[in-house]
Amino acid sequence: MTGELPGPAPEERPHPSGRRNEQGIRIDPEAEAEPEVRREVLSALVDHEPGVLAEVSGLFARRQFNIESLTVGPTMTGGLARMTIVVEETDPGVEQAKRQLRKLVPVHAVRELEAATERELALIKVGDDDPAGVAAVAEMYGGEAVEAGPEVVTVELTGTEAEIDAAVEAFERFGVREVARTGTAALAGGTEFTAHETHNNE
Amino acid sequence: MVGNDAFQEADTTGITRPVTKASYFASDPDTVGDTVGEAFELARKGRQGPTLVDLPKDVSNAEDVARPGPAAGPETQVVPDEADPEAVTRAATALANAERPVILAGGGVIKGNASEELRQFAIDHGVPVVTTMPGVGAFDETHELAMEMAGMHGTGYANMAVTHCDVMLAVGTRFDDRLTGGVDTFAPEAEIAHVDIDASEISKNVHADYPLVGDASTVLRQLDEALARSPDTDAWRDQCTHWETEYPMDYDAPEDEPLKPQFVVEAFDEATDADTIVTTGVGQHQMWAVQYWTFTEPRTWISSHGLGTMGYGLPAAIGAKVAAPEKEVVCFDGDGSFLMTSQGLSVAVREDLDITVCILNNEAVGMVRQWQDAFFEGRRMASEYPWGPDFATLADAFGAKGFTLDAYDDVADTIAAARDYDGPSVIDCHIDPREDVYPMVASGGANGLFALQEEHL
Ligand SMILES: Cc1ncc(C[n+]2csc(CCOP(=O)(O)OP(=O)(O)O)c2C)c(N)n1
Ligand SMILES: [Mg+2]
User: Fold this and answer.
1) Which of A52, B31, B153, B202 has the fewest beta carbons closer than 10 A?
2) Contacts with B455 (C-beta within 8 Å, 6 or more apart), sequence order
3) A28 in a structural domain
4) Cα B249 to ligand 2 centroid, rounded to whole Å
5) Interchain contact, A25 vs B18, CB within 8 Å
6) How many separate domains does chain A show?
7) Does position A73 have pLDDT exceeding 80, yes or no?
8) Looking at the Swiss-Prot or TrEMBL record, what is one Pfam family this protein matches (chain A) (predicted)?
9) Which of B41, B184, B384 is the best mutation test for A, with the most CBs of A within 10 A?
10) Domain boundaries, position A169
11) For residue A94, what pLDDT is reported?
C-alpha cells in the first residue's frame, strides 16, 4: 500500500529508558512492583430518591470498580440517605471512585473513612438439633436467637465483616441453612463527621 | 402508565444515564420548568456535556402549570474557582526548571475558551505546543512553536516531543489511549502538570505530579503569575525543529496515479479562509483532514474524536452552518461514513445551507482495510466497497448539487465550482484506494515508535 512518509525508521531513533506502570505512574523499570489493592470504606450522602442506587451501582459496574458491599438508608436529614460502599482498589482506583461519585448529581458528599466504626447485621438460620450449642455460639458472638421454630433457629448478630465471617463459620457445625447479610454500615470515628452537607463535594 | 411497557415505552433515563451528565425524569408539571432549567445549567457548568430530560406525555400536555424560577444548576456540583495555589507554585517551579518542556493542549482548551491564554503562555515562555485531536485549533499550527497533533496518527515530531519531554503541561485533556499509546511508554521521563476542570480526569489514566483542578484560563493565569522565570528552551526548541525537518509530512503525488487525498485537503485549505470550519466522518479521510489542513483558529475543527462515530460529518456541518452562518463550512467525509447519514442532505436543502461536502471516496471502509492489511496479513473482510452509489447523482436527487472529481487538473476548478454553488454541494472525489494513513502508532504501542510505512508496524 502507498502513503509512506520519509524519516528514520523506529529502531534508528533515540528512545528514553523511563517507564510508567499500569496506573500511569513513573517507576524504576528495574524495581517494578504490583500496585497494592486496599480495602476502603467510602461514605456518601445522597438524595433519598428512586434511581440513586441504580445510578451509583451503574457507575461502579460501568467503570469496573471492585466493590465488596453497598448499603443505603435514611439519615436524620429529610430527603438525604447515607450510602456506605466498601471498595477494594489500588490508591488511584479509590481516588477515581470518589471523584466519579462526586460527579453524580444526587451525590452531596463523599468521604473515605479512616478509623471508622463498621458494623454489619446478619441473620443466620441453623438447624435446631443442638439448641444449647447454638445459644452458646450465638452468645459468644454477641448474637441472639430471634426466631426458634420447628427444626430451625434464626440468630441475629452484628459485628464487623470479619466477625460475621467467623460466626457463620462457627455455626456451620449446626448446619447453616441460609444467611442474609446487610453489608457494612459505617460512621467516622470520634467527633469527625462522616459525610456531611458541609463536605459538599469538596 | 410508566413501567408497564406501554406503547413505545423505553427506559429513556436508564438508557441515557451512562452517556449524559445527568438524565432527568420530569414527572411533575409544576416542577418540569425548573428541571429543564437545571438540565441546561448543568450542561454548561464545569466540564460541558449533554444532559437529558424525559418528558412524559401527560406532563407535556399539562395546562396551568407553575412558572419556573430562574434556572439554577444542581447544588451538589461545585466547580472550583481556581487551582490549589500550593500545587500551582510547585508546578511553576518544575516548569521554570524544565529543560525539555511541552504543552499538551486538549479539547478542554477550546471548550473553556482558553486558546488565547494558552497561546500567550506558550509564546511568552517559549514552550513548544502539541495538541490532542480535540485540541486542534487551540494553537496556531503555523506558529514556530507548533508541533501539531500527537498520538496514533499525530505527526512524527509531535510524538518525538511528547516522548522526550521532561515536563508536560497538559491542559484540558483526558489522556485518551489514542493520544497516549501504551501508558507505560507515554512521556516516560516527564513530570506532568495536569490542568482540568473535571477532578476525575486527574490521574485517571496518567499520573499527575501536579494536579491543577480549575478553569483552563484561570489556571494558566495562576501559573503565569507563579512562574519566576521562563525555562531555558533554546536547545530543546532546536531539537524540536530538527525533528520537524527529519519527519516531514511529505507525501508522493505522482501525476499518472489516482488522486491523493492529502492533495485535495491541501487544495481546499488553500482555497478557503482561515476561519473555515471543517467537519469529518471517521476513518482515513478524517486523519488526512486533520493532518493536511492547517488549523489556526479554535472551533474550526469539528470531529467525533474519541467516540469515533461514522456519519458525524454531514450533521455536524449542518449544525456548524446553523450556529455560524457567516463562516464557510467544509465537510470531509468518507464514502462509508457519508452513507450513514446522507439523508441529512434533505435537511441541508430544506434549510438552504451553503455547505460543501467533499467525499474522499476510496470505495472502501479504508481505515478498516488499512488495519486488515497491517495486522491481519492483508486478509480483507467486508472492507472494500465498490457498490457505493454515484454520490454526485445522489446529491442531485436530493436537490443539492453534485460534482465528480478524478483528475489533478480538475481539482482547483471543481473545488471553486462547489464552493460557488449557493446551497449544499457534494464532491464525489475518487482517490487512490491504496493510500494508507501515516505516521501511525500501533494500538497500545510507544508514541516514539510511530511507523512511517507498513513495514514499521
Ligand atoms: C458507526 C460506526 N461504525 C463502524 C465504525 C468502525 N470504523 C472506523 S473507521 C471505519 C471506516 C470508515 O470508512 P469511510 O467512512 O469510507 O472512511 P475511510 O477510512 O475510507 O476514509 C469503520 C468502519 C465506526 N467508527 N463507526
Ligand atoms: Mg472510504
Assistant:
1) B31
2) none
3) no
4) 21
5) no
6) 2
7) yes
8) ALS_ss_C
9) B184
10) 118-186
11) 96
pLDDT at B233 over 70: yes
Which residue on chain B is closest to A62 by alpha carbon?
Answer: B18
Q: At B14, list the grid cell.
A: 436508564
Confidence label for A198 from pLDDT (cuts 50, 70 and 90)? confident
In a domain, A103, yes or no: yes
For residue A49, the domain's CATH number is 3.30.70.260
Interface contact A24-B437, CB threshold 8 A: no
Q: Are residues A90 and A132 in the same domain?
A: no
C-beta B334 within 6 A of ligand 1: yes
pTM over 0.90: yes
Record: contact A108-B250, CB cut-off 8 A: no
Residue A32: is its pLDDT beyond 90?
no
Among chain A residues, the shortest Cα distance to B17 is held by A55
**For atom 5 of ligand 1, which residue has the closest CA?**
B310
- Average pLDDT over all residues of chain A: 93
Give nearest CA residue, ligand 1 atom 4: B310
In a domain, A201, yes or no: no
When CB atoms are compared, the residue of A5, A25, A100 closest to B249 is A5
A24 vs B207, B249, B451: nearest CB: B207
- Asked if residue A180 and residue A162 are part of one domain, the reply reads yes
Q: What is the mean pLDDT of chain B?
A: 97
Q: What is the ipTM of this complex?
A: 0.92
* pLDDT band for position B171 (cuts 50, 70, 90): very high
